[in-house]
Amino acid sequence: MTSTTQPPASGARTAHPEHLGHVIFIAAAAAMGGFLFGYDSAVINGAVEAIRGRYDIGSAALAQVIAIALIGCAIGAATAGRIADRIGRIRCMQIASVLFTISAVGSALPFALWDLAFWRIIGGFAIGMASVIGPAYIAEVAPAAYRGRLGSFQQAAIVIGIAISQLVNWGILNAAGGDQRGHLMGLEAWQVMLGVMVIPAVLYGLLSFAIPESPRFLISAGRDARAREVLKEVEGEHIDLDARVAEIEHAMKSEHKSTFKDLLGGSFFFKPIVWVGIGLSVFQQFVGINVAFYYSSTLWQSVGVDPTQSFFYSFTTSIINIIGTVIAMIFVDRIGRRPLALIGSVGMAAGLALEAWAFSYDLVDGKLPATQGWVALVAAHVFVLFFALSWGVVVWVFLGEMFPNRIRAAALGVAASAQWIANWAITASFPSLADWNLSATYVIYTIFAALSIPFVLKYVKETKGKALEEMG
To answer: Residue 287 pLDDT > 70, yes or no?
Structure first.
């Protein structure tokens, strides 16, 4: 599934003021998938230690339960485009909503460890679908003049979803007396945390009935009359509908359906530009960012922070993530992608190095010494801030722009797959690495952050201000 990025055929197309509010509502409704993406990804943070205690499992088994959702993510992301091209974007959103709901209920009421893992795979599949459908749908529905800003709704929704999940976890933990396994509404607190996702999941499904199908899909399905109605809804009554429909049809006919074979070549199997995309994806994950969202509560508790405070710190980290994302959205088109990536790499390396230093000290009465404790806490927030204002946003911008037209879709798919695999590797390895040596684990993440600097300087070209057709 791809979206048309052709320039206007004649004059700038903009939604008139009376239509803009409707377009914003449509984009926000579609971005609920992004909200659930962030929420479902991060909500497990509040249940990690409770799952360890409930099922009496070691770090390796625990890591697999946490990371297994990423298998579903990869499958969902790989298949969502084809599903959406067959049955439509809206139906795809509704399937994702059902899967999110089933996952929430199943995860809240597991019989054993194996079925908790199964429900997490189901949720992961929904995350993968949402990660593809939301941005594609918004790009296809949004008027050209507002496409960039409306497209940013997806990333904003993801980071808000992460923050809200941590806030909800913190509230539930307090209601349960600070015990993740404390009883609340007839369940243990961690089960309630995982089950609350039913609410946004159902809302996502309901909103999908209130927004129109993508004009692009409608035209591909031969429903030109309905496509004209939707185009009039989102772009205003003053556009030339015949010209718009003809433009979309022309774009669809002229597209090159890139395949895996198109990526082959060069000295090392793939073309060099594909390796650059894979490198960006791997570095984005190998700095350990998802440790901050999947394991932060466990991390702080391991160095003596009480559970309630650890959950609060997870929430404040998520707020910093939102702030950093907003900064990136403001500056990515002003100072460029490459400078922002380099600034982020330097900041991340500094934050991670400070965390590694702080965690190298022995615990005193079960806690880090006061100075090291505060350094670790501040450094963790610094790390997340610099990630969010750079690599969190910039990598996706690069991947959408850097590949030549003839291989863009296939190359983006390979790079995104590399990102899911790298995410899984970090998520699955952290508990065992932390048991081995927490400080050394952060040294490893610091090294990857530092190595990303020469990687960007040598291999990554600036894409700011260049047309997609210029990428050769």
So the answer is: yes
- Cβ pair 311, 166 in contact under 8 A: yes
The pair of structure tokens assigned to 269 is 């199997």
Cα 280 to chain centroid, rounded:
15
Between the CA of residue 75 and those of 66, 79, 429, what are the distances in Å? 17, 6, 21
**DSSP 3-state assignment of 65?**
helix
Query: Distance between CA 375 and CA 398 in Å, rounded?
Result: 33
Q: What are the E-state strand segments in 9-118?
A: none
Q: Which residue has the tokens 């507002």?
A: 146
265 alpha carbon, distance to own chain's centre? 30
Domains and CATH numbers, the chain: 1-255 (1.20.1250.20), 258-472 (1.20.1250.20)
222 phi, psi to nearest 5 deg: 80, 15
Mark out the alpha helices in 236-336 (DSSP H runs): 241-254, 272-286, 289-294, 296-302, 307-331
How big is the CA angle at 116 (ends 113 and 118), to the nearest 5 degrees?
110
The predicted model gives 187-213 an average pLDDT of: 95
The confidence score (pLDDT) of residue 10 equals 38
**pTM for the predicted model, two decimal places:** 0.83
Distances (CA, A) of 161 to 22, 26, 38: 23, 18, 5
268 strand-pairing partners: 270
Residue-wise pLDDT tens digits, 396-431: 888 877 888 677 767 877 888 888 889 999 999 998
| pLDDT digit string, tens, across residues 246-260 | 888 877 776 666 666
Is the pLDDT at 61 greater than 70? The verdict is yes
What is the per-residue pLDDT for 456? 96
Q: What is the phi/psi pair of residue 79, to 5°?
A: -105, -15
- 346, 400 Cβ separation under 8 angstroms: no
Average pLDDT score over residue span 288-308: 87
